[in-house]
UniProtKB/TrEMBL annotation, chain A:
Component of the oligosaccharyltransferase (OST) complex. Subunit of the oligosaccharyl transferase (OST) complex that catalyzes the initial transfer of a defined glycan (Glc(3)Man(9)GlcNAc(2) in eukaryotes) from the lipid carrier dolichol-pyrophosphate to an asparagine residue within an Asn-X-Ser/Thr consensus motif in nascent polypeptide chains, the first step in protein N-glycosylation. N-glycosylation occurs cotranslationally and the complex associates with the Sec61 complex at the channel-forming translocon complex that mediates protein translocation across the endoplasmic reticulum (ER). All subunits are required for a maximal enzyme activity. GO terms for cellular component: oligosaccharyltransferase complex. This is Dolichyl-diphosphooligosaccharide-protein glycosyltransferase subunit OST5. It comes from the Eukaryota.
UniProtKB/TrEMBL annotation, chain B:
InterPro entries: Ribophorin_I. Keywords: Endoplasmic reticulum, Membrane, Signal, Transmembrane, Transmembrane helix. The chain crosses the membrane at residues 473-492. It comes from Thermothielavioides terrestris (strain ATCC 38088 / NRRL 8126) (Thielavia terrestris). This is Dolichyl-diphosphooligosaccharide--protein glycosyltransferase subunit 1. It is a single-pass type I membrane protein. Belongs to the OST1 family. It is found in: Endoplasmic reticulum membrane. Pathway: Protein modification; protein glycosylation.
Length: 100, 501
C-alpha cells in the first residue's frame, strides 16, 4: 500500500478525467462513423466485378470512376472504411451502455 | 434487450469484434499480496512487561454486530523499553474479528499503531493480536490505548423460533473481566443495548459499596469496577435483550468497479449473498397477517427494505436477483442525492436468504483524475452497502477494480484497517472487445461492517496512449484483413478461358 496516493489525488484536483466524446454524443458519433464505414464497405463490395454482375451498377460505378478490380480500392475505400468502423464500433459499444 | 440485440448484430456482422464473455483468469502477477500475520513459536506466552493500570471495556450491542472498545492505561513494568502489547482472543473470536483499530486516546497524532494477528499454534484456543506501539514505552511510563474492533455472528436468538408478529430476543455471551494478557489493577465493563428491554442478564456479587453487579442505567449495564485481576482472568456472563430488527448478515459481497476511458464512465456492480441470522419463524409465513401488520404494527424483525445512499451523480441503477429484474425499488437521483431504496422480493425472516445484485453508473470525472505525470488516479469508496439503523455486517468482501486494458504500474491505498485485508493482487479480466484482458486490482477483505462505509480506496495507474488505442486498432486490423481477403477472392478467375483460335 502506498500512503502517498492521497496527496496524488489531492494534487490532481484541477484535472478531472473528461473523455474525448461525452456520453451524450457517443451514439451520434458512433452512428455517423458506422454509416460512413458501411457505405464505404458497400462501395468496395460493389466495385468487385465477380460480386456484382448488374450492368446498371457497373455503369454507376464507371460513372463514379471507381477503378474496377484495382488494388487502389484497398487504400481509397477499405482503409477509410476500416478506420470509421473501428472507432464507430468502440463508441457504439459505449453508446449502448457497455462501457468498454 | 436492446443492448443484446445490438451486440449480436455487431458480432455477427463484424466477426472480428471478439466478445470473450465476462470470464476472468487469474494471472500469476500478484504484485503486493499483503500478509499481516506473524509466526511465533508454539510455546509463546506474552512476556509480563505491562500492567493495565485502568481499563474500561465498552461493548456495544446496539447493531447487529458487536462493537467493542477497550480503553486501557498501560504501564511498562519492565526494566527495558517495550513496544509490543498483546491482546488475547479465543480462536473462535479471532475468526469473527474484524476492523481492528488502535489509537492513543490522549494524543491523536501518535501513530500509526500496527495491529496484526500472531500465528503461533493453530491448535491453541488462545490467539493473540499484537499491537506495535509507534514509540517504545520507557520503563515506568504510561500510555492510553484505545483499541476498537468488531465481532460478527455474535448473537443467538432465544427463543430460536418465534411467530412472525412477535418480538425477537438475542443472547450474547462474554466475559465480565476484559480478557487481557497482563495483570489489570482496575477495570469495568459497560454493555450498551438498543433498548432498555433486557429481560435476562447474569448477576455477579458486588464489591465495595455496590452489592450486586451489573448496575442498570437505562439501556446500559455496568459490570464493575473490579479490583486487581490476574492475566487471563475470565468471568463468563451472558445477556438476553430485545432486538426487533433484522440481524442482517452478508456472507459474501462481490463489488466490481469498472473504469472506462472510452466511455468516460465508472460502472459499479455489487452482488450480495444476504442472510438473516435472527429467530426463525415457528409457523408458516402468513401473508395476510404480514399485510395487516404493515398498518397497525409496522415494527418487525423481518428485513423489508434496504437503503443505499449512493454518491451524487450516480445514474442507471438496476436491481436484479436470480429470477431477473426486481421491480420493488425506488431510485431518487438529483443534484443533492442519489438514493436507491430496494425491497426484497419477500420479507426476509430469520434463517432466510436473499441473494441480489445492484449496479449503477457514474461519470468518470467524479472518480477519476489525470495526474501531472501523465498517469491516472481513481478514488472510490471501498464499501457502499446499505445504510440501515440496525447495521450490516460483511463476512467476505471481494472488491475488484477493473482498469482499462493495458493499464500498468498499479498502486493502491485504502483506509480500511490493514488487518481486515486478507489478500490483494492483480488479475486479468476479459470482457467485450478485449484482446489481452483488462488489468483488475482484486482486494479481498473479511469481517467488515457498515461503519467502514465510505472509507476510500485510491488507485493510481499508468495508461499509455498505444494501450488506449488497442481496441480501435484491433477492429481496424481485423476489418482491413476482411477487405483484403474479399479483394483477393474477388479477383480469382472462375471462368473457363475461351479457346484461342
Amino acid at each position: 500500500m502506498d500512503s502517498s496516493l492521497h496527496e496524488v489525488w489531492q494534487a490532481a484536483a484541477g484535472s478531472p478525467f473528461v473523455p474525448t466524446v461525452g456520453k451524450g454524443s457517443q451514439f451520434l458519433v458512433a452512428f455517423v462513423l458506422l454509416l460512413i464505414g458501411f457505405s464505404l464497405s458497400g462501395a468496395f463490395a460493389l466495385s468487385m466485378p465477380y460480386l456484382c454482375h448488374s450492368n446498371v451498377i457497373q455503369l454507376v460505378l464507371l460513372t463514379m470512376r471507381f477503378p474496377d478490380r484495382s488494388l487502389v480500392n484497398l487504400p481509397i475505400l477499405a482503409v477509410p472504411a476500416s478506420l470509421a468502423l473501428a472507432v464507430g464500433v468502440v463508441y457504439m459499444f459505449c453508446a449502448v451502455g457497455v462501457y468498454v | 434487450m436492446k443492448t443484446t440485440a445490438v451486440f449480436s448484430a455487431f458480432v455477427s456482422l463484424l466477426s472480428f469484434a471478439s466478445a470473450a464473455g465476462a470470464s476472468s483468469k487469474k494471472s500469476s502477477a500478484s504484485s503486493d499480496s499483503s500478509s499481516t500475520s506473524t509466526t511465533l513459536p508454539a510455546t509463546f506466552k506474552p512476556p509480563q512487561v505491562f500492567k493495565n493500570a485502568n481499563l474500561v471495556h465498552v461493548i456495544s450491542l446496539e447493531k447487529n454486530y458487536v462493537k467493542e472498545n477497550i480503553n486501557v492505561l498501560v504501564e511498562n513494568i519492565d526494566k527495558a523499553p517495550q513496544d509490543e502489547y498483546f491482546v488475547p482472543f479465543t480462536a473462535d473470536q479471532m475468526s469473527r474479528l474484524g476492523g481492528v483499530e488502535v489509537k492513543d486516546r490522549k494524543d491523536a497524532s501518535a501513530g500509526p499503531f500496527v495491529a496484526e494477528p500472531v500465528e503461533f499454534d493453530q491448535e491453541s484456543d488462545i490467539q493473540y493480536l499484537r499491537i506495535r506501539l509507534p514509540k517504545p514505552l520507557a520503563p515506568g511510563a504510561q500510555q492510553t490505548l484505545g483499541i476498537s474492533y468488531y465481532l460478527l455472528k455474535a448473537y443467538k436468538p432465544l427463543p430460536a423460533s418465534i411467530k412472525q408478529e412477535e418480538q425477537q430476543y438475542l443472547t450474547f455471551s462474554f466475559s465480565a473481566y476484559c480478557s487481557s494478557a497482563y495483570t489489570t489493577t482496575k477495570q469495568k465493563t459497560e454493555v450498551k443495548f438498543p433498548s432498555g428491554n433486557i429481560p435476562d442478564y447474569t448477576k455477579l456479587p458486588g464489591s465495595g459499596d455496590v452489592s450486586e453487579f451489573p448496575q442498570k442505567q437505562g439501556s446500559k449495564l455496568i459490570y464493575g469496577p473490579f479490583d486487581e485481576k490476574p492475566a487471563g482472568a475470565a468471568q463468563p456472563v451472558s445477556v438476553r435483550f430485545e432486538f426487533t430488527k433484522p440481524v442482517t448478515h452478508v456472507s459474501r459481497l462481490e463489488r466490481d468497479i469498472e473504469v472506462s476511458h472510452w466511455g468516460g464512465n465508472v460502472a459499479f456492480e455489487e452482488r450480495y449473498t444476504l442472510y438473516h441470522r435472527g429467530a426463525n419463524l415457528s409457523s408458516l409465513f402468513n401473508r395476510v397477517k404480514w399485510q395487516q401488520a404493515q398498518y397497525y404494527h409496522p415494527t418487525t424483525f423481518a428485513l423489508k427494505e434496504l437503503k443505499f445512499p449512493l454518491r451524487v451523480g450516480s445514474v442507471d441503477a438496476y436491481y436484479t436477483d436470480v429470477i431477473g429484474n426486481v421491480s420493488t425499488s425506488h431510485f431518487r437521483t438529483n443534484k443533492r442525492e442519489a438514493l436507491l431504496e430496494i425491497k426484497p422480493r419477500y420479507p426476509v425472516f430469520g434463517g432466510w436468504k436473499f441473494p441480489f445484485t445492484i449496479g449503477w453508473n457514474s461519470d468518470a470525472k467524479n472518480f477519476l483524475r489525470k495526474t501531472a505525470t501523465g498517469g491516472f488516479v481513481l478514488n472510490v469508496p471501498f464499501l457502499e452497502g446499505p445504510r440501515q439503523p440496525e447495521g450490516v455486517e460483511y463476512e467476505q468482501v471481494q472488491l475488484r477494480v477493473i482498469l482499462p486494458e493495458g493499464a500498468e504500474n498499479v498502486r493502491y491505498h485504502t483506509s480500511i484497517p490493514p488487518s481486515s485485508i486478507t489478500e490483494a493482487g492483480i488479475e486479468i479480466h476479459k470482457t467485450f472487445l478485449d484482446t489481452l484482458g483488462r488489468t483488475a486490482l482484486v482486494i479481498r477483505a473479511r469481517n467488515l461492517v457498515d461503519d467502514f462505509r465510505d472509507r476510500d480506496l485510491v488507485v493510481a495507474y499508468d495508461y499509455p496512449l498505444l494501450a488506449s488505442l488497442r481496441k480501435p486498432l484491433v477492429v481496424f486490423a481485423s476489418a482491413v484483413a476482411v477487405f483484403v481477403v474479399a479483394w483477393i477472392v474477388g479477383n480469382v478467375e472462375l471462368k473457363f478461358d475461351s479457346p484461342k483460335k
